[in-house]
Amino acid sequence: MSIALHQPAAAEFAWSGANANPAEQFPGSIAAIAADHRPSRMPFFARLGGLPGAEAHNPPMLGQIYLVYQSAMHAMRAGIYFMPHLDSPVMRRRKLRIYMEDEGVAGGDTHHYQLARAFRSIGAAMPLGDEEFGDLGELCRRLDRGTAHFVRLARSLYSRSLGAWCIAEAMSDDWMRALAQALAVHHLEIVGQPYFAATLSHAPGEPPPAEAITVTQTVLRERPSLIEETLRDAEIMADALDGIWESLDAIVRAAADPAN
Predict the structure, then answer these.
(1) Tens-digit pLDDT profile for residues 55-84
(2) For residues 94 and 105, what is the distance between their CA atoms, to the nearest angstrom?
(3) Nearest Cα to Cα of residue 40 among 249, 223, 253
(4) To 5 degrees, how large is the angle CA 204–CA 205–CA 208?
(5) CA–CA separation, 258 vs 166, rounded Å?
């Protein structure tokens, strides 16, 4: 499935107020994009939760959901290592902390392995082994067209601005909670899996970690010319993530109605 991207005109990001500081308005702009593209609004999550029991336990279907979702997450995790504008000594320190928070799970674990274990625990037939999620170009050859497009796009967006990172961080709590709740309808044990535990441990609607916004604001205060590009890339990434939920919905619809 291909992902249709909406690339907003620069006028959409015009700042109100002649004396307004664009960097100070940045958090609100990201919040607005996140609200417009709230993942849990997408039909995939409700459709997955509403599957009949037998279909919801189908190992190949669960494996296909895992493949698409893990590939998208892998592309974004890999993209963090290529983020620009963080090369000064103080920003390199922040960048190192970002790496540690993104990958440094207690005991040397990682979110990638946690997600794989979560899907194995509910009987998914895993299409790829853990270490086969490596080079993005090689991975794309094993994916459907829409997911491969997302993987390539994520690499491009993460390497040219901080917008994709910001919007992914702003929305990740919502999609992880929605995925956990949909799977838990049929696989209650999923809520105890470490991959979902941190998200489910706090109340819905609590503000997500602000590191992405704080770091990006620091960059934008020094380089305000980057603001339009940063917000444009955030919007493109939000559109692309909509495409991932649509691809996942197509998998669930096929499982619910094999005749089609």
Answers:
(1) 999 999 999 999 999 999 999 999 988 999
(2) 18
(3) 249
(4) 105
(5) 38
Contact 49, 181 (CB under 8 A): yes
Among 76-90, 118-132, 204-218, whose mean pLDDT is lowest?
204-218
Long-range contacts of 205-211 (CB under 8 A, 24+ apart): 206/173, 208/169, 208/170, 208/172, 208/173, 209/101, 209/169, 211/94, 211/97, 211/98, 211/101, 211/169
Which residue in 259, 249, 241, 228 sits closest to 37, CA to CA? 241
Element (H, E) at 148: helix 145-160
DSSP for 166-235, written as a single string: HHHHHHHHHHHHHHHHHHHTT-GGGGGSHHHHHHHTS-TTPPPP-HHHHHHHHHHHH-GGGHHHHHHHHH
Query: What are the extents of the domains in the chain?
Result: 40-256
102 touches 83 (CB < 8 A): no
Q: With contact defined as beta carbons under 8 Å apart, do 140 and 152 qualify?
A: yes
Mean pLDDT of the chain: 87
Side-chain-side CA neighbours of residue 99 (13 Å): 12
Q: What is the pLDDT of residue 13?
A: 46
CA angle 22, 171, 21 (to 5 degrees): 5
Q: What is the pLDDT of residue 108?
A: 66
Q: 229's torsion region: left (phi>0), alpha (psi -120 to 50) or beta?
A: alpha
The C-alpha atoms of residue 186 and residue 45 are separated, in whole angstroms, by: 13
Query: pTM, whole model, 2 decimals?
Result: 0.87
What's the CATH code, domain 40-256?
Answer: 1.20.910.10
